[in-house]
Design the sequence.
């Protein structure tokens, strides 16, 4: 039991932050989504979401692609393979510890 | 940190993500409008039995016309909603590409739905037999518990329909609609109206409610400012 609890110390701090965890969990449930969809669905402000996405991109958990659909600018976000692995590991550690 | 993100560490992130995606799907009210139109079509199907004589041209024309419209709307609504969102609402809704459907899981779900529909249809046929045919054979009207069989059909339809609305969509306005539908079914059962009249009233009321609620949500959604992307 104590070994399982000790594993909590291994939790990735980038993904453990609730807003980032929400973004990663949302992206894990879809193929891809744009900035506007994430903003509407999570309820985060534009600046907040932008900052969290930048951190996730820096960590290599989210891939961001800027493109256009007609005149509408799209910032498409996808969860990377590394992001998926980190989320799976996060779930396992939390489930085992609690 | 907002209200949603605060709960992320309390619940399974996957469950919350699916709930948020589900909520986003119903945000613009388009699905509600389609559901309302579908239920109103069912109402006109049962209503045709009240207006036209069974077997008349009007009855047959309404039946086949509605069946055609129902199948078109049933199969085409998903595609139409997708197109409308992509063409007109992308600035407000944002863009999302959902994961491909798991065909095996979908098959199992369809099997369960078809099985349940068969059981409900068999029960309804039995109730119809007791209501329509048995009294003409000199058996008299059958009373089971509080209501005649037609009354139980209203109670069953109201409660099952209400439960589907509450547990399938899990949004407050659907929960309210579900409770209203269940109450309406029980009230109709107490009024001892005939089966076609009762079902037409129940479906008509539920359809109008969904359509009205969908239109209000859609108009409110259109008034929201368009996002800039980033």
Sequence:
């Amino acid at each position: 039991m104590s070994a399982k609890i000790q594993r909590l110390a291994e939790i990735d701090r980038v993904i453990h932050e609730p807003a980032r965890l929400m973004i990663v969990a949302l992206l894990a449930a879809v193929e891809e989504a744009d900035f506007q969809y994430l903003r509407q669905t999570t309820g985060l402000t534009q600046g907040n979401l932008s900052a969290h996405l930048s951190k996730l991109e820096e960590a290599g958990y989210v891939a961001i692609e800027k493109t256009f659909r007609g005149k509408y600018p799209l910032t498409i976000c996808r969860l990377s393979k590394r992001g998926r692995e980190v989320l799976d590991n996060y779930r396992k550690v939390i489930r085992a510890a609690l | 940190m907002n209200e949603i993100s605060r709960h992320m560490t309390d619940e399974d992130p996957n469950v919350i993500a699916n709930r948020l995606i589900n909520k986003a799907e119903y945000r613009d009210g388009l699905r509600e409008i389609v559901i309302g139109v579908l239920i109103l079509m069912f109402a006109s199907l049962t209503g045709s039995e009240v207006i036209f004589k069974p077997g008349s041209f009007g009855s047959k024309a309404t039946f086949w016309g509605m069946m055609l419209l129902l199948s078109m709307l049933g199969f085409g609504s998903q595609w139409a909603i997708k197109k409308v969102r992509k063409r007109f609402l992308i600035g407000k809704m944002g863009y999302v590409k959902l994961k491909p459907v798991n065909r095996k899981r979908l098959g199992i779900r369809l099997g369960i739905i078809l099985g349940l529909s068969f059981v409900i249809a068999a029960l309804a046929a039995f109730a119809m037999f007791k209501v329509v045919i048995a009294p003409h054979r000199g058996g008299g009207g059958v009373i089971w518990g509080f209501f005649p069989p037609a009354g139980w059909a209203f109670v069953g339809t109201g409660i099952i329909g209400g439960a589907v609305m509450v547990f399938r969509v899990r949004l407050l306005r659907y929960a309210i609609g579900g409770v209203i539908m269940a109450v309406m079914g029980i009230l109709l059962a107490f009024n001892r109206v005939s089966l076609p009249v009762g079902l037409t009233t129940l479906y008509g009321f539920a359809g109008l409610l969904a359509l009205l609620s969908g239109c209000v949500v859609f108009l409110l959604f259109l008034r929201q400012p368009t996002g800039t992307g980033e």
